[in-house]
Amino acid sequence: MLIETKGLSKFYKHKDGIVEAIKDINLGFNQGDFVTITGPSGSGKTTLLLLLAGLLRPTAGSIKFQKHELHSASDNVLAGIRSKHIGFVMQNFSLIPYLSVLNNVLIPLSLNQNGERTKSDYAIHLLETVGLKDRMNHLPKELSAGQQQRVAIARALVNKPNLILADEPTGNLDPALSIEILEVLKRINIENQITIAMVTHSPTASKYGNIRIHIDKGSIVN
Ligand SMILES: Nc1ncnc2c1ncn2[C@@H]1O[C@H](COP(=O)(O)OP(=O)(O)OP(=O)(O)O)[C@@H](O)[C@H]1O
Ligand SMILES: [Mg+2]
Predict the structure, then answer these.
(1) Which of 21, 47, 164, 186 is the most exposed place for a label (fewest CB within 10 A)?
(2) What CA–CA distance (Å, rounded) separates 169 from 34?
(3) pTM score, two decimals?
Protein backbone atom coordinates (compact mmCIF):
# COMPACT_ATOMS: atom_id res chain seq x y z
CA MET A 1 0.00 0.00 0.00
CA LEU A 2 1.34 3.46 -0.95
CA ILE A 3 -0.74 5.53 1.42
CA GLU A 4 -3.09 4.51 4.19
CA THR A 5 -5.13 6.51 6.68
CA LYS A 6 -6.78 5.28 9.87
CA GLY A 7 -9.32 7.31 11.80
CA LEU A 8 -8.07 10.44 10.08
CA SER A 9 -9.68 13.64 11.39
CA LYS A 10 -8.94 17.32 10.99
CA PHE A 11 -10.78 19.95 13.00
CA TYR A 12 -10.04 23.62 12.43
CA LYS A 13 -10.28 25.83 15.47
CA HIS A 14 -11.95 29.12 14.74
CA LYS A 15 -13.04 31.86 17.10
CA ASP A 16 -16.65 31.09 16.19
CA GLY A 17 -16.22 27.40 17.00
CA ILE A 18 -14.66 24.24 15.66
CA VAL A 19 -15.06 23.17 12.02
CA GLU A 20 -14.96 19.40 11.69
CA ALA A 21 -13.49 19.34 8.17
CA ILE A 22 -12.44 15.66 8.03
CA LYS A 23 -13.97 13.02 10.30
CA ASP A 24 -12.65 9.52 10.88
CA ILE A 25 -11.54 8.69 7.34
CA ASN A 26 -10.07 5.27 6.61
CA LEU A 27 -8.67 4.76 3.13
CA GLY A 28 -5.80 3.12 1.31
CA PHE A 29 -4.35 3.49 -2.17
CA ASN A 30 -1.84 1.32 -3.98
CA GLN A 31 0.86 2.35 -6.41
CA GLY A 32 -0.86 2.86 -9.76
CA ASP A 33 -4.32 3.72 -8.43
CA PHE A 34 -6.21 6.64 -9.96
CA VAL A 35 -8.36 8.00 -7.14
CA THR A 36 -11.04 10.61 -7.72
CA ILE A 37 -12.48 12.59 -4.82
CA THR A 38 -15.84 14.32 -5.24
CA GLY A 39 -18.14 16.10 -2.83
CA PRO A 40 -19.95 19.38 -2.25
CA SER A 41 -18.13 22.64 -1.64
CA GLY A 42 -16.83 22.70 1.91
CA SER A 43 -17.03 18.91 2.34
CA GLY A 44 -13.32 18.59 3.13
CA LYS A 45 -11.73 17.57 -0.19
CA THR A 46 -8.86 20.07 -0.17
CA THR A 47 -8.28 19.41 3.51
CA LEU A 48 -7.96 15.69 2.75
CA LEU A 49 -5.38 16.35 0.00
CA LEU A 50 -3.37 18.63 2.29
CA LEU A 51 -3.38 15.92 4.97
CA LEU A 52 -2.22 13.29 2.45
CA ALA A 53 0.57 15.67 1.41
CA GLY A 54 1.73 16.14 4.98
CA LEU A 55 0.99 19.86 4.63
CA LEU A 56 -1.55 19.75 7.47
CA ARG A 57 -1.30 17.90 10.76
CA PRO A 58 -4.26 15.67 11.58
CA THR A 59 -6.22 16.36 14.75
CA ALA A 60 -6.54 12.60 15.23
CA GLY A 61 -5.68 9.41 13.42
CA SER A 62 -2.76 8.26 11.32
CA ILE A 63 -1.41 8.62 7.78
CA LYS A 64 1.19 6.21 6.54
CA PHE A 65 3.03 6.98 3.28
CA GLN A 66 5.17 4.01 2.27
CA LYS A 67 6.96 3.30 5.54
CA HIS A 68 6.71 6.85 6.86
CA GLU A 69 4.24 7.84 9.58
CA LEU A 70 3.32 11.31 8.30
CA HIS A 71 1.21 12.31 11.31
CA SER A 72 4.20 12.13 13.64
CA ALA A 73 7.06 13.04 11.29
CA SER A 74 9.03 16.24 11.83
CA ASP A 75 8.54 19.18 9.48
CA ASN A 76 11.95 18.48 7.91
CA VAL A 77 11.11 14.86 7.25
CA LEU A 78 7.76 15.87 5.77
CA ALA A 79 9.42 18.41 3.47
CA GLY A 80 11.87 15.74 2.34
CA ILE A 81 9.10 13.24 1.61
CA ARG A 82 7.20 15.86 -0.37
CA SER A 83 10.16 16.90 -2.47
CA LYS A 84 11.11 13.29 -3.24
CA HIS A 85 7.78 11.55 -3.65
CA ILE A 86 4.85 13.92 -4.14
CA GLY A 87 3.82 16.20 -6.99
CA PHE A 88 1.07 18.82 -6.87
CA VAL A 89 -1.27 20.17 -9.51
CA MET A 90 -3.56 22.91 -8.30
CA GLN A 91 -6.53 24.61 -9.90
CA ASN A 92 -4.90 27.97 -10.54
CA PHE A 93 -1.75 26.53 -12.20
CA SER A 94 0.52 28.59 -9.90
CA LEU A 95 3.16 29.07 -12.56
CA ILE A 96 5.72 31.80 -11.91
CA PRO A 97 4.90 34.50 -14.51
CA TYR A 98 8.44 35.75 -15.15
CA LEU A 99 10.02 32.32 -15.58
CA SER A 100 10.05 30.42 -18.86
CA VAL A 101 8.03 27.24 -19.23
CA LEU A 102 11.19 25.15 -18.81
CA ASN A 103 12.29 27.02 -15.69
CA ASN A 104 8.82 26.64 -14.21
CA VAL A 105 9.08 22.88 -14.69
CA LEU A 106 12.50 22.91 -12.98
CA ILE A 107 11.23 24.65 -9.81
CA PRO A 108 10.74 21.49 -7.71
CA LEU A 109 14.28 20.38 -8.52
CA SER A 110 15.79 23.63 -7.29
CA LEU A 111 14.09 22.92 -3.98
CA ASN A 112 15.74 19.53 -3.79
CA GLN A 113 18.23 18.97 -0.93
CA ASN A 114 20.99 18.11 -3.39
CA GLY A 115 20.54 21.47 -5.07
CA GLU A 116 20.34 19.69 -8.41
CA ARG A 117 19.07 21.66 -11.39
CA THR A 118 20.93 19.67 -13.97
CA LYS A 119 18.07 17.36 -14.88
CA SER A 120 16.85 19.63 -17.66
CA ASP A 121 16.95 16.74 -20.16
CA TYR A 122 14.25 15.07 -18.13
CA ALA A 123 12.27 18.32 -17.84
CA ILE A 124 12.43 18.70 -21.63
CA HIS A 125 11.31 15.09 -22.02
CA LEU A 126 8.30 15.82 -19.79
CA LEU A 127 7.44 18.91 -21.82
CA GLU A 128 7.54 16.66 -24.87
CA THR A 129 5.21 14.22 -23.10
CA VAL A 130 2.64 16.97 -22.52
CA GLY A 131 3.10 18.27 -26.07
CA LEU A 132 4.87 21.52 -25.23
CA LYS A 133 8.54 20.98 -26.04
CA ASP A 134 8.39 23.68 -28.71
CA ARG A 135 7.11 26.13 -26.08
CA MET A 136 9.79 25.65 -23.44
CA ASN A 137 11.23 29.14 -23.82
CA HIS A 138 7.84 30.84 -23.72
CA LEU A 139 6.41 32.66 -20.74
CA PRO A 140 3.22 31.28 -19.10
CA LYS A 141 1.14 34.24 -20.34
CA GLU A 142 2.01 33.26 -23.91
CA LEU A 143 0.21 29.92 -23.45
CA SER A 144 -3.45 28.96 -23.37
CA ALA A 145 -5.08 27.84 -20.12
CA GLY A 146 -4.87 24.15 -21.06
CA GLN A 147 -1.23 24.54 -22.07
CA GLN A 148 -0.43 26.24 -18.76
CA GLN A 149 -2.11 23.41 -16.91
CA ARG A 150 0.00 20.91 -18.88
CA VAL A 151 3.13 22.82 -17.78
CA ALA A 152 1.90 22.46 -14.19
CA ILE A 153 1.56 18.70 -14.76
CA ALA A 154 5.09 18.48 -16.18
CA ARG A 155 6.31 20.39 -13.13
CA ALA A 156 4.49 17.99 -10.80
CA LEU A 157 6.27 15.08 -12.50
CA VAL A 158 9.81 16.41 -12.60
CA ASN A 159 10.86 14.98 -9.25
CA LYS A 160 9.59 11.53 -10.34
CA PRO A 161 6.93 11.33 -7.64
CA ASN A 162 5.08 8.19 -6.57
CA LEU A 163 1.99 10.26 -5.90
CA ILE A 164 0.37 13.20 -7.65
CA LEU A 165 -2.20 15.21 -5.71
CA ALA A 166 -4.40 17.29 -7.97
CA ASP A 167 -6.98 19.77 -6.66
CA GLU A 168 -9.51 20.44 -9.43
CA PRO A 169 -6.87 20.42 -12.17
CA THR A 170 -9.58 20.97 -14.79
CA GLY A 171 -11.67 23.42 -12.76
CA ASN A 172 -10.83 26.44 -14.90
CA LEU A 173 -10.92 24.69 -18.27
CA ASP A 174 -13.58 24.18 -20.92
CA PRO A 175 -14.76 20.59 -21.58
CA ALA A 176 -12.36 19.96 -24.50
CA LEU A 177 -9.31 21.20 -22.56
CA SER A 178 -10.45 19.24 -19.51
CA ILE A 179 -10.44 16.02 -21.50
CA GLU A 180 -6.96 16.89 -22.79
CA ILE A 181 -5.64 17.29 -19.22
CA LEU A 182 -7.44 14.16 -17.98
CA GLU A 183 -5.96 12.14 -20.82
CA VAL A 184 -2.46 13.38 -19.93
CA LEU A 185 -3.02 12.36 -16.31
CA LYS A 186 -4.37 8.96 -17.36
CA ARG A 187 -1.37 8.31 -19.60
CA ILE A 188 1.06 9.22 -16.80
CA ASN A 189 -0.88 7.01 -14.44
CA ILE A 190 -0.83 3.99 -16.75
CA GLU A 191 2.63 4.34 -18.27
CA ASN A 192 4.54 5.31 -15.11
CA GLN A 193 2.27 3.71 -12.50
CA ILE A 194 2.14 7.02 -10.66
CA THR A 195 -0.71 7.11 -8.17
CA ILE A 196 -3.05 10.03 -8.75
CA ALA A 197 -5.50 11.45 -6.21
CA MET A 198 -7.64 14.06 -7.95
CA VAL A 199 -10.34 16.28 -6.49
CA THR A 200 -13.00 17.17 -9.02
CA HIS A 201 -16.50 18.54 -9.29
CA SER A 202 -16.95 17.04 -12.74
CA PRO A 203 -18.78 13.72 -13.20
CA THR A 204 -16.80 13.15 -16.42
CA ALA A 205 -13.51 13.61 -14.59
CA SER A 206 -14.53 11.39 -11.70
CA LYS A 207 -15.06 8.48 -14.12
CA TYR A 208 -11.30 8.41 -14.69
CA GLY A 209 -10.82 6.93 -11.22
CA ASN A 210 -10.51 3.22 -10.56
CA ILE A 211 -11.22 4.25 -6.95
CA ARG A 212 -13.96 6.86 -6.54
CA ILE A 213 -14.39 8.53 -3.19
CA HIS A 214 -17.31 10.77 -2.40
CA ILE A 215 -17.12 12.86 0.74
CA ASP A 216 -19.82 14.83 2.45
CA LYS A 217 -19.39 16.85 5.64
CA GLY A 218 -15.94 15.36 6.16
CA SER A 219 -16.93 11.69 5.91
CA ILE A 220 -16.75 9.16 3.10
CA VAL A 221 -20.19 8.28 1.78
CA ASN A 222 -21.10 5.73 -0.86
N1 LIG B 1 -7.79 27.22 7.58
C2 LIG B 1 -9.08 26.99 7.90
N3 LIG B 1 -9.60 27.46 9.06
C4 LIG B 1 -10.87 27.20 9.41
N5 LIG B 1 -11.72 26.48 8.65
C6 LIG B 1 -11.26 26.00 7.48
C7 LIG B 1 -9.92 26.23 7.03
N8 LIG B 1 -9.75 25.63 5.84
C9 LIG B 1 -10.92 25.06 5.54
N10 LIG B 1 -11.84 25.26 6.52
C11 LIG B 1 -13.23 24.74 6.58
O12 LIG B 1 -13.15 23.33 6.48
C13 LIG B 1 -14.21 22.83 5.68
C14 LIG B 1 -13.64 22.01 4.54
O15 LIG B 1 -12.92 22.88 3.69
P16 LIG B 1 -12.19 22.37 2.36
O17 LIG B 1 -11.44 23.50 1.80
O18 LIG B 1 -11.44 21.13 2.66
O19 LIG B 1 -13.47 22.01 1.45
P20 LIG B 1 -13.55 21.55 -0.08
O21 LIG B 1 -14.32 20.28 -0.12
O22 LIG B 1 -12.19 21.54 -0.68
O23 LIG B 1 -14.43 22.71 -0.74
P24 LIG B 1 -14.39 23.35 -2.22
O25 LIG B 1 -15.04 22.34 -3.13
O26 LIG B 1 -15.22 24.60 -2.08
O27 LIG B 1 -12.96 23.61 -2.58
C28 LIG B 1 -15.01 24.05 5.23
O29 LIG B 1 -16.12 24.18 6.11
C30 LIG B 1 -14.05 25.19 5.40
O31 LIG B 1 -14.73 26.40 5.68
MG1 LIG C 1 -11.27 22.69 -2.20
Answers:
(1) 186
(2) 14
(3) 0.90
